[in-house]
Amino acid sequence: MVERILQVTDLSVHYGAIKAVQQVNFVVNRGEIVTLIGANGAGKSTILRGISGLEKPVAGQMMFNNQDLNGLSSESRVQQGIVQVPEGRHVFPGMSVLENLRLGAYTMHDKQQFSKTLAHVFDLFPILAERKTQDAATLSGGEQQMLAIGRALMAQPKMILLDEPSMGLAPLFIQKIFDIIQQIRESGVTVLVIEQNAHQALTIADRGYVLESGQIIATGTGAELLASSQVRAAYLGG
Amino acid sequence: MSSILQQLLNGVILGSVYALLALGYTMVYGIIKLINFAHGDVYMLGAYFGYFFINVLHLNFFIALVLAMAVSAGVGVVIEFVAYRPLRQSPRIAVLISALGVSFLLENGMSYFFGSDKRAFPQAIATVQYHFGQLQISNIQLLIIGTAVVLMLGLTLIVQKTKMGRAMRAVSADQEAAILMGINVNRTISFTFAIGSALAAAGGVLIGLYYNNIDPLMGMTPGIKAFVAAVLGGIGIIPGAALGGWLIGILETLTQAIGLSDYKDAVVYGILIVILLWKPTGILGKNGREKV
């Protein structure tokens, strides 16, 4: 039984005169990994920012769990279960790993739930448990990405939005991050991931959408898009 | 020798008040990158509230102090809401000008409604002098240092250990990431103004008691000096504000002690220039360019 968790209809987001996203339509089903791929500036990040409430769309509708997101603050969206991991990680410098994780659970008020979730995150990322008193700014790029993802999981999201999670990481870490994404899905969290690393993203994704100049130009299962000559030519280096 | 010690002690007392004020500057700067030039006037308002509670309502000094802090906290929240929040998306200079406007409004508004003359601050606590060898310290001076230290410890506890304190640090460090954690940024900023204003008010009431008089312009010079103190310690860094406050207080007192009273303000502002030229990030600041 396919159940829609997110339905985006005719979404348009502008930055002043720049039409970053134009009438985009896509859906994410519960339990899926869906990826948006496309070149730099295609509008991928802007879509995520629209969903998390960092940008205000000029038009369109976003239904999450049959609730209209327009008019909801970012804070309420987190409470509804949408949590975004920002591009470039954005861990809080000068604060310990544990404090960063606590901030991830900012909207959670139940102490037992907090400990349970923390244990789950430490399970996924043992390195964070080892480094929990360390200043987040002193972690390596890959560790910071793990912290950023772990921090988002602390909010117990229903859907996690990942913005370029592999960007700037060593190949070893990239593989690890994609493994983790699959583990996150297996734990019951829906994943919407945007990536320039299209090959990896399509390999783990159930479905994908290809964006170009703010519009969706192709869609299909991960395997279909991987096989598509159009996608191969544009994003997978032939 | 003993006179130097005495001056150092006096400097620490004056510096405690600067430190209380500097904390507000630095917290507000940390969270919205605004030099809140109306902050010294909140200190003045705090002194007037204290005056009102003691003189008119005949409350106990400590109750008056706490009430003055609470009311001033509310004033700080209102100032932010009315004069700064609507300009959140505007260039920083617009908010800075708005802060100057609020400063003038408070100074002239108070002069207009309550007169610009100095008023005698009630001697709510009788002064007692203590002698330790050659050193002399009054109960009022001890009260100033004690209150300042207690408030600073309280602030540290709030900032380090509470959820709201963590939210304050998160918004200071990375506002957008804080939003993504589900932190209500506006509420966090209001809280920061409340705390900063309460500390300023405490400084105002203590200084009223110490110098025995208050007037609508009493916040101007201490306001600027506390700003210098915040920059000296490293703007945006909470322990830096305390350190800077004490250093400025000591420096000012020592300048007076060596007979250069007329230059004590010039020395403080000279420090600002030197710091800005030589190490703009302040004593505790990390060197490095601000990320834009």
Provide a compact summary of the structure.
The complex is a heterodimer of chains A (238) and B (292). Chain A is an alpha/beta fold. Chain A is built from 10 helices and 10 strands.
Give the tags.
heterodimer; A: 238 residues; alpha/beta; four-stranded antiparallel beta sheet; 10 helices; 28% strand; globular; B: 292 residues; mainly alpha; ABC transporter involved in vitamin B12 uptake, BtuC; two-stranded antiparallel sheet; 11 helices; 4 strands; 4% strand; branched-chain amino acid transmembrane transporter activity (chain A); nucleotide-binding (chain A); transport (chain A); ABC transporter ATP-binding protein (chain A)
Secondary structure elements and their pairing?
The complex is a heterodimer of chains A (238) and B (292).
Chain A: E1 4-15, E2 18-29, E3 33-38, H1 44-52, E4 59-64, E5 67-68, H2 74-80, E6 82-85, H3 97-104, H4 111-124, H5 126-130, H6 141-153, E7 159-163, H7 171-186, E8 190-195, H8 198-204, E9 207-212, E10 215-221, H9 222-227, H10 229-235
Helix pairs in contact in A: 3-6
Chain B: H1 2-32, H2 39-56, H3 61-84, H4 92-114, E1 119-120, E2 129-132, E3 135-138, H5 139-161, H6 163-173, H7 175-180, H8 185-211, E4 213-214, H9 220-233, H10 238-257, H11 264-278
Antiparallel strand pairs in B: 1-4, 2-3
Helix pairs in contact in B: 1-5, 1-8, 1-9, 1-10, 2-3, 2-8, 2-9, 3-8, 5-6, 5-8, 6-8, 9-10, 9-11, 10-11
Structural overview:
- The complex is a heterodimer of chains A (238) and B (292).
- Helices cover 39% and strands 28% of the residues of chain A.
- Chain A is an alpha/beta fold and 238 residues long.
- Chain A has one domain: P-loop containing nucleotide triphosphate hydrolases (Rossmann fold, 3-Layer(aba) Sandwich), CATH 3.40.50.
- In chain A, the strands form two sheets. A six-stranded mixed β-sheet of chain A has the order 6-7-8-3-9-10, sandwiched between helices. In chain A, strands 2-1-4-5 form a four-stranded antiparallel β-sheet, with helices on one face.
- In chain A, helix 3 (97-104) runs parallel beside helix 6.
- Chain A is globular.
- The model of chain A has no long low-confidence stretch (mean pLDDT 93).
- Chain B has 292 residues and is mostly helical.
- In chain B, 73% of the residues lie in helices and 4% in strands.
- Chain B has helices at 2-32, 39-56, 61-84, 92-114, 139-161, 163-173, 175-180, 185-211, 220-233, 238-257, 264-278; strands at residues 119-120, 129-132, 135-138, 213-214.
- In chain B, the strands form two sheets. In chain B, strands 1-4 form a two-stranded antiparallel ribbon. In chain B, strands 2-3 form a two-stranded antiparallel sheet.
- Chain B starts with a helix and ends in a 14-residue tail after the last helix.
- Classes of the chains: A alpha/beta (238), B mainly alpha (292).
- Chains A and B meet through helix 2, strand 6 and helix 3 of A and helix 6 and helix 7 of B.
- Chain B: The chain crosses the membrane at residues 12-32, 52-81, 93-114, 140-159, 189-211, 226-254, 266-285.
- Chain B: This is Branched-chain amino acid ABC transporter permease.
